[in-house]
Amino acid sequence: MRPHVGVIASYDFTREAELRRWFPPGAEYTLTFTERVAYRDNLELVSGLGSPDLLAEPTRTLVEHGAQAVAYRCTACTFVAGAAGERALRRA
User: Fold this and answer.
1) Looking at the 3D structure of the chain, how many domains does it have?
2) Model confidence, pTM
3) What Gene3D superfamilies does the database record attribute to this sequence (predicted)?
4) Which end of the chain is more exposed for a tag (fewer CB within 10 A), N or C?
5) DSSP codes, 14-82
6) Which domain holds residue 48?
């Protein structure tokens, strides 16, 4: 069985070709996106994108498509709320 990874990216992600190059030959991935987030500044944007509620539906979609692991491709979003926020994202 080939490894299948689910990837969640923010709604404005534009680097799918680059993402494809990160995966080893033979690995499969499914890409899905977050919903849009309203914001006035960058902190508000990454705080909104770091909300566990925002990840629930994309995660369910990826698991339903057979993803064996799920990665969230948004570095700032994973640490904006500190260690507790990162734990909440992993639970989501």
Assistant:
1) 1
2) 0.84
3) 3.40.50.12500
4) N
5) --HHHHHHHSPTT-EEEEEEPPP---SSHHHHHHHHT-HHHHHHHHHHHHHTT-SEEEEE-HHHHHTTH
6) 4-90
